[in-house]
């Protein structure tokens, strides 16, 4: 629980993308303490990797057990999955536009297979949870979302599309005082754009108050990373 001085650590975990073994190794390394820590998952738990179903179940169970101190944000892959199932049910909400057709082409086939192997109640419980995940979270001067922001728009009125999907080098243009903590764009791609590629991908701490946490967990040579945004400490698996 939060003490008088706030949390001891505010931990942000980048895109998991079905990499269950890396997720378990990372959680062992960070030694999450629900009495002192705030833990925030930045979305994209599914697709790409070999075990999206197990990742969903693990993160869901953790959030249910420690709902006061574990925050799970929606990523664009959760949007695509939600769209797929909502279209099948003939039901939409304001967040879910028609991404159903693109989900299976972006890693969704294995996720769908693993969901269909679960019993009906477990599958439905996970789907309802995913469909209602929040898009953003703010703690003090730290603003968390999956993808990015429109640098010309105040954080309080950001468009959900930008927070879930934006990738066009917004991080170079941001000039706000709050620190933005995001995933979505692997740091490998950012470093390639700057001509400063690294052998081991690590989260980026940009001078203009941006922390990028996606280190390409499912990619060749990629890592799953956690950042304590208060101390700047990094753990990887």
TrEMBL record:
GO terms for cellular component: cytoplasm. SUPFAM superfamilies: Metallo-dependent phosphatases. One of its GO terms (biological process) is RNA decapping. It comes from the Bacteria. Pfam families: Metallophos (PF00149). Residues 9-192 form the Calcineurin-like phosphoesterase domain. GO terms for molecular function: bis(5'-nucleosyl)-tetraphosphatase (symmetrical) activity; phosphatase activity. This is Serine/threonine protein phosphatase 1.
């Amino acid at each position: 629980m939060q003490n008088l001085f706030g949390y001891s650590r505010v931990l942000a975990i980048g895109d998991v993308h079905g990499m269950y073994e890396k997720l378990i190794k990372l959680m062992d390394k960070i030694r999450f303490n629900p009495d002192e820590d705030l833990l925030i998952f930045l979305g994209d738990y599914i697709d790409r990797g070999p075990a999206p179903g197990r990742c969903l179940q693990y993160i869901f169970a953790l959030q249910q057990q420690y709902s006061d101190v574990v925050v799970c944000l929606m990523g664009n892959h959760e949007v695509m999955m939600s769209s797929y199932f909502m279209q099948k049910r003939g039901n939409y909400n304001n967040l879910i536009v028609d991404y159903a057709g693109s989900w299976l082409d972006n890693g969704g086939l294995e996720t769908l297979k693993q969901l269909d192997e679960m019993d009906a109640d477990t599958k439905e419980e996970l789907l309802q949870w995913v469909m209602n995940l929040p898009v953003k979270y703010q703690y003090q001067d730290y603003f968390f979302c999956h993808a990015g922001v429109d640098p010309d728009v105040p954080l309080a009125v950001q468009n959900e599309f930008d927070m879930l999907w934006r990738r066009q080098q917004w991080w170079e243009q941001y000039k706000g005082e709050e620190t933005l903590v995001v995933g979505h764009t692997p740091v490998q791609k950012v470093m390639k754009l700057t001509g400063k590629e690294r052998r081991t991908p690590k989260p980026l701490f940009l001078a203009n108050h941006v922390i990028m946490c996606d280190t390409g967990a499912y990619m060749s040579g990629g890592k799953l990373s956690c950042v304590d945004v208060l101390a700047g400490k990094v753990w990887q698996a």
